[in-house]
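thoughts on these tokens:
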Amino acid sequence: MSLQIPTRSDLKHYTLQVTLEEVTYTLEFRWNVRLAAWFMDVQDLNGTTTLIAGLRLVANWPLAAYKTGRRPPGAFVAIDTSGKGIDPGADDLGDRVQLRYFSSTDLGL
């Protein structure tokens, strides 16, 4: 069963901490006006070491699904709940588009 990441669209740059498979990570989200896209960084607990940088949130596609180094062992997926496969706009993250984390167990790894 996947875990829904508590994203928000009222802030265009923010961080939150989430525990994924018994390890706590800091996720940093930012809206890029020029590209009209959301980007995410995955950092260690203290936010001092970036594990994944500049991950563009695209709809219905496994994001960073390959385990290397200290990255989370599962996969993030930005799910467009409308079923249209549209990437999240500035006001869609956490509403129409939900960010979910599928664990390595979910993926059969």
